[in-house]
Write a structure and sequence with these properties.
Blueprint: E1 3-4, E2 10-11, H1 17-24, E3 32-35, H2 38-46, E4 50-53, H3 60-65, H4 75-82
Parallel strand pairs: 3-4
Antiparallel strand pairs: 1-2
């Protein structure tokens, strides 16, 4: 069963992060997560992956209430983090 995207289009059920890492041959230590919601944060931290909340996060208050402190990511900053 799929879930709805913001525009109402059904998406296929996504792989879990651990399954995706396994399929990609990646590790928690070599993977970073960038997102804009509390769900993104919880998924990444639940999988043991370092997460960055993007400044376009619509749920900044929810993220702060749940202990998130790694704000300040603009698209250009993502490139700097990855290099």
């Amino acid at each position: 069963m799929g879930h709805q995207s913001a525009k109402g289009k059904k998406k296929p059920k996504p792989f879990t992060i651990p399954e995706a890492l396994k399929r990609l041959g990646a590790t928690q230590e070599t993977t970073l997560s960038f997102g804009n919601s509390l769900k993104d944060f919880k998924a990444a931290t639940g999988a043991g992956i370092k997460h960055y909340a993007c400044l376009w996060a619509k749920e900044e208050d929810l993220l702060r209430e749940n202990g998130y402190r790694n704000f300040g990511i603009y698209p250009k900053k993502i490139i700097e983090i990855l290099v």
